[in-house]
Amino acid sequence: PIELASAKRLVAGVPATIVGWGKTAYDQASLTEELQSAATVVQGRKWCRSNAPPFYAQSEICTITPPSYATGVCQGDSGGPLLASGPSGAPIEIGIADHVYGRCSTRHPSVFASVGSIAPWIRTWITAYKRPPIPSGPAPPPTLPTGPGTQPAPS
């Protein structure tokens, strides 16, 4: 499983990756058939408050990709991850795609729920729905009943 971000606040300028099945253009008739990913950059809270209203700094992250402004989330990406590299280089989920502005315009920020602000809640649900471990080794043979009257009749 992927590591979840901690409650530590993200710094503006952190490179991140958007992943999703959403449209790649607003007028696209259906969702994409291949999982898409795109590079983006986490923006500062003050910038997000000004450019992504209503923006809730305690529980949201916003991204935009200057100077190209070529990527962002679109319809169908909601619920998808926003990933960043952790200290070891392994990906960490820092956000969950929430909403977009202006007909999926890449000139407007993409907004994500901050995983760090809800990580304890997510872990509670993961634990609640964790499957029991699969037993190792082969399954034991079935046991048949023994005793009088339980033997098969002779043929």
Give the CA-CA distance, first to last residue.
56 Å
In N-to-C order, the SSE pattern is EEEHEEEEH
Tell me about the biggest sheet?
6 strands, antiparallel, barrel
Counting DSSP E segments of at least 2 residues, the number of strands comes to 7
Basic shape: elongated
**Which whole number gives the mean pLDDT?**
87
Please summarize what this structure is.
The protein has 155 residues and is of the alpha+beta class. The chain is 14% helix and 25% strand.
Describe the structure.
Helices cover 14% and strands 25% of the residues. It has 2 helices and 7 strands; from the N terminus they run βββαββββα. It has a 6-stranded antiparallel barrel with strand order 2-3-4-7-6-5. The mean pLDDT is 87.
Any descriptors?
single chain; six-stranded antiparallel barrel; 14% helix
Strands, helices and their partners?
Layout: E1 3-4, E2 15-20, E3 36-42, H1 45-51, E4 60-64, E5 81-85, E6 91-99, E7 110-114, H2 115-128
Parallel strand pairs: 1-6
Antiparallel strand pairs: 2-3, 2-5, 3-4, 4-7, 5-6, 6-7
